[in-house]
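note to self: dont lose this again. the chain is below, predicted strucutre after it. 136 aa total, dont forget to put it in the shared folder this time
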Amino acid sequence: MATITRFEDIEAWKTARELTRMVYAFTEQGKFAKDFGLKNQIQRASVSVMSNIAEGFESRTQPQFLEYLGRAKASAGEARCQLYVAIDLSYINQEEFTQVFDLADKASRQIARFMNYLEVHPQSHRIRDEGAEYEA
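---
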């Protein structure tokens, strides 16, 4: 695995970003746009996936990173659950459901594999300060 120096390089974060973009796109349409509770909840869940990956990467220790990755994975599951509500209420069609569900599921699997990698290679995540300048 190549050294990751920015959270933007993490494949699961890239997938979560695409998931978030798609969630925002379809929650602004039709009946979904008027269901403020579900709309807000699924948007927050998708943003939480990418935010927790980023926050965990920027955290101070590997155990903290793993904790944040666990939260990100949980948020991906929450988004998948809310997609069932959306399709059951006919807010989205089967094609939209499948497309977004598959992204949420992909993010979850990527996070799980990344967590496993970090657990097997405990020294693989270190704080990186390249180019930082400090003044007293």
